[in-house]
Design a protein that fits this description.
- The structure is a single chain.
- With about 375 residues, the protein is α+β, with helices and mostly antiparallel strands.
- The protein is about 60% helix and about 20% strand.
- It contains 10 helices and 6 strands, in the order H-H-H-H-H-E-E-E-E-E-E-H-H-H-H-H.
- A 6-stranded antiparallel beta sheet has the order 1-2-3-4-5-6.
- A hairpin with a 2-residue loop joins strand 1 and strand 2.
- Helix 1 runs antiparallel to helix 2, helix 2 packs across helix 9 and helix 7 crosses helix 8.
- It is elongated and about 85 Å long.
- The two termini are about 25 Å apart.
- The relative contact order is 0.12.
Length: about 375
C-alpha cells in the first residue's frame, strides 16, 4: 500500500468510528432505552438482566450504522482534503480522483462483505438470545394464547427431513389448524406432502385429523393420494416447544429464512415479508459501498467549510435512501413489485448516483 493510500485511510477511520458511535447512540436514545426502562418499571426486571438484554440488542443496531458511518466518513475525509487544498496538490501530481478514492472504496466494500457475515452469524443469534431473555425471564413466558404462521422442522444432517407449516396454534386447546407437512428424502428431495384441517396434542404426540397424503416419491410426475381421518404428525415438538421455537424473521439466519419461505409457499401463504427480509440481509450491508461511492465525490463540492455541513448532508442522503427503501419494500411486500427488484431499488439508484458523481468530479 502506498503512503498516500495509508494517509487517506487514516483520515477515513476516525470519522467512521465516530459515525458508528454517534448513530448507535441516536438509535439507542430513540428506542432501546425506552424499552429497557419499560422492562424495569412494568415488569420489575433486575438491573443485571436488563443490562444483559441491552448488550444483546446492540449488534442489531450497530449493523444499521455501518452504511451511515461510511457515508459520513467518506464525505468528511474528502471534504477535509479539499478544504486544505491537499486534494488539489494530489491531483496536480497526476493522480485522478478515482485513484485517490480507491482505498476508501475498497475498505467500504470490505465493510459491506463483513457486515453480511456479521448479519448472518452474529445478529440472528444475539436477537434470539435477547428475545429469549425478554420472553422467559422478564415477561415470565407471557405468551399469547394464539399464534399465527407456525413453522417447525426436523433435519437429516444438513438436509431438511420434515418441514411443517400451520396457519395458527391455540395454546389453550393445544390445537394446530390448517397444516401442511413436507417430507424430504436424500439430498433434500421432496417425497411426500400431507395436508390436514387440524392436529391435536394427545399428551404424547400430535394427531392430524381429516387430511390427505400426496406421495410423489416415485417421480416422473407420478402422484398417489390417500385420505385419512387420523394420522400422527411426524414432528415431535411438544406444545411448550412450539411456543418457544417460533422466532421472528430478524432471529433467523438466511438458511432458516429459506426454510420458512419454503414452508409458507407449500401452504400457499404469502411469504413476501420473509423474502424481503432475506434479500435485505445483502442489500442493506451493500449500502456501505454505495454510500462510499456517493459520499467521496460529494466531499469535493464547494460546501466544505464545516464538518457540521458534512454531517447534515449525510443525514439528508440517509433519509432519502431509507425512505426509498421503505417505499420500495412496501411495494414488494404488497406484491406491486417483484421482491428482488424492490429490494435492489435503493442500492441501484445509489450506485447510479455515485457513478454519475464520480464521473462528474473526474472530468
Amino acid at each position: 500500500m502506498r503512503l498516500l493510500d495509508k494517509y487517506i485511510l487514516k483520515a477515513f477511520v476516525g470519522p467512521f468510528l465516530f459515525g458508528v458511535f454517534a448513530f448507535t447512540s441516536i438509535f439507542i436514545g430513540t428506542g432501546t432505552l425506552f424499552r429497557i426502562a419499560q422492562y424495569i418499571t412494568e415488569y420489575g426486571a433486575p438491573l443485571v438482566l436488563v443490562m444483559k438484554a441491552f448488550v444483546l440488542a446492540l449488534p442489531s443496531i450497530v449493523i444499521l450504522t455501518f452504511p451511515m458511518s461510511v457515508l459520513l466518513a467518506s464525505l468528511m475525509t474528502f471534504s477535509r482534503l479539499s478544504s486544505t487544498s491537499e486534494i488539489v496538490v494530489m491531483r496536480a501530481g497526476g493522480l485522478s480522483f478515482l485513484r485517490l478514492a480507491m482505498p476508501v472504496y475498497i475498505i467500504a466494500l470490505i465493510i459491506s462483505i463483513g457486515a453480511v457475515a456479521f448479519n448472518e452469524f452474529v445478529v440472528p443469534r444475539t436477537n434470539n438470545m435477547y428475545q429469549t431473555i425478554v420472553r422467559e425471564q422478564i415477561m415470565k413466558n407471557a405468551s399469547p394464547q394464539t399464534q399465527n404462521h407456525i413453522v417447525l422442522k426436523t433435519m437429516n444432517g444438513n438436509d431438511l427431513g420434515t418441514l411443517m407449516y400451520a396457519k395458527s396454534y391455540n395454546a389453550e386447546t393445544k390445537k394446530l389448524s390448517m397444516i401442511t407437512v413436507q417430507q424430504f428424502g436424500e439430498g433434500g428431495k421432496l417425497q411426500q406432502v400431507e395436508n390436514a384441517d387440524t392436529a391435536v396434542w394427545n399428551g404424547q404426540y400430535w394427531v392430524m385429523q381429516n387430511g390427505i397424503i400426496y406421495d410423489i416419491s416415485a417421480g416422473d410426475g407420478v402422484e398417489r393420494t390417500m385420505k385419512f381421518k387420523e394420522q400422527s404428525l411426524p414432528i415431535k415438538s411438544a406444545p411448550k416447544d412450539i411456543q418457544q421455537d417460533q422466532r421472528k424473521p430478524e432471529e433467523l439466519t438466511i438458511k432458516e429464512l429459506r426454510h420458512q419461505i419454503k414452508a409458507y409457499k407449500a401452504a400457499y401463504t404469502n411469504a413476501n415479508k420473509l423474502e424481503m427480509e432475506m434479500y435485505q440481509r445483502f442489500t442493506i450491508p451493500l449500502a456501505s459501498f454505495v454510500f462510499a461511492l456517493v459520499g467521496a465525490p460529494l466531499g469535493l463540492q464547494k460546501q466544505r467549510s464545516s464538518s457540521s455541513i458534512g454531517f447534515g448532508i449525510s443525514i439528508l442522503i440517509i433519509f432519502i435512501y431509507y425512505g426509498v427503501m421503505t417505499f420500495a419494500g412496501a411495494l414488494g411486500k404488497g406484491g406491486a413489485l417483484p421482491i428482488v427488484f424492490a429490494a435492489l431499488i435503493p442500492d441501484t439508484l445509489g450506485i447510479i448516483a455515485g457513478l454519475y458523481l464520480n464521473w462528474r468530479v473526474s472530468k
